[in-house]
Amino acid sequence: MKNLSLKLGLLFFLILFGLETFTFFFLHSTLVESRVEEELIALQTRGNSHRAILERHFENDTISHVALMESEANTDVVITNINKDILGSSVKSSIIQEYIDRPNPSVPREGQTIGDNWRDEDYISTVSPIEQKGQLIGYVYMFQDTAWIQSLISRLNEQFLLAGFIAVIFTITIIIFLSKALAKPLIKMKEATSQISKGDFSVSLPKTGDDELGDLAQSIQLLANDLSYLKEERSEFLSSISHELRTPLTYIKGYADIVQKRNLTAEERNQYLTIILEETNRLSDMVKNLFDLAKIDKNSFDIHKTPIDLHDFMRKIEAKFTPAFMDKKMILEVNCPEAIQLNADASRLEQIIFNLLDNSIKYSSPDGKTAITVSRHNKNIIIRIKDNGKGIPEHELPYIFNRFYRVDKSRTRALGGTGLGLAIVKELIHAHGGTITVKSKENIGTEFDMVFKGDDG
User: CB of 333 within 8 A of CB of 371?
Assistant: First the structure.
């Protein structure tokens, strides 16, 4: 957690510190330049005011008065004639002569700046021309000591440094809380995935919000729940299959030992061999069903769809299964209109119906009736298999399509069920893009509805 929080915090700090540094530098430069520009404008304006007075009264008394006025201010003035000879001055410094001697061949009427390098020079300065009757007669030079400006900038720098320090502390504080807030759910997710990788799926990740982190937490939680369910299903499956395989193998081994070691009559021998054959067939069917389910799980179960005329198909089903129903003194009734086609794998569709009809035979009493009805609803084709057998308890209905699940567990061996038939039916129907539902009431009967997408053509 510390490493992740540190990395996130460092990343945020570098980004925010860079933005703050750029912003502070830009604001500082802008404020400094703006402040110096304001001082130069004020200096130029003051020089132009003196120039206006001198143009009306370009006399020694006026010149002296102007110089005296500036000697009491924080600015200085120097008045020269056209040849730049000093006529009056409020400052006694040889430095100002350098500014006066600078060439200024054509000074505009509004004046101009002749010194603005406040960082390296002692003064900033401006010059304004003095004219009478359109003729140039002298200049007004204004000066301001840059020490005052540098003091102002220094105070501004201190304020910026203080603001920057506060901003950095504030940024670091926010980043600490923010990085922890972001890292905490990520660390929990990391711990959860590590726990899942070790086979422990009992993780709990609360949804942190309607954002990407919340969606990620929910996805990990769903993954853990699914893996937990699959683990339980695998355990139950292995337990069931070991039990189901052990039972017929026990019968086969036991009766084979009897046949081999005992002196039996021909009738007894045939009886035991018949049991061995039945258990071998049961074992063979179970293995075949397991292979089918394994292929379905691996998406390697081939479904070869072809157009099937359901009227002819159901007639063949009726002819094939009627003897089995008659042998049990039961009735099989098939109702299918003509001109109904379904794109499906004929052998797999027959396998689906066989499994359902086989259940009807097993779980119906003599004189029972099973009806197959085919109908079209909108673009869907519905195949319904309904019997009036013993039915399924309501609380068992949600589980009948689970593998190895059997409703009548006490009679299963006598009836020959393995608990795989309905699981295969459901998977085969889903492989065709269809659905299956069941309705049942005890001692009234059971109804399976299979819905397939019809041929739009």
Answer: yes
* H-only helix segments in 328-399: 346-362
Confidence grade of residue 335 (pLDDT, cut at 50, 70, 90):
very high
CATH of 212-297, one of 3.40.1710.10, 3.10.310.40, 3.40.190.120, 1.10.287.130: 1.10.287.130
Determine the residue type at 351: Q
This prediction has a pTM of 0.47
Buried b / exposed e across 31-48, counting CB within 10 Å, b at 16+?
A: ebeeebeebbeebbebbb
Rounded distance, CA 394 to CA 128, Å?
A: 107
Give the pLDDT score at 370: 94
Of 2.60.120.10, 3.30.450.20, 3.30.930.10, 3.30.457.10, the CATH number of 2-152 is 3.30.450.20
Query: Model confidence over 206-241: pLDDT tens digits?
Result: 666 666 667 777 777 777 777 776 677 667 666 666
- The predicted-structure confidence for 263-298, as pLDDT tens digits, reads as follows 888 888 888 888 888 778 877 877 776 776 666 665
Pick the CATH number of 306-453 from 3.90.79.10, 1.10.4160.10, 3.30.565.10, 3.40.109.10: 3.30.565.10
Distance, first Cα to last Cα, the chain: 61
Residue 17 CB neighbour total at 10 angstroms: 16
Q: Residue 440: beta bridge partners?
A: 446
Give the DSSP H/E element, type plus range, for residue 439: strand 435-441
- 338-351 burial, b at 16+ Cβ within 10 Å, e below that, comes to eebebbbbeebbbb
pLDDT for residue 407? 62
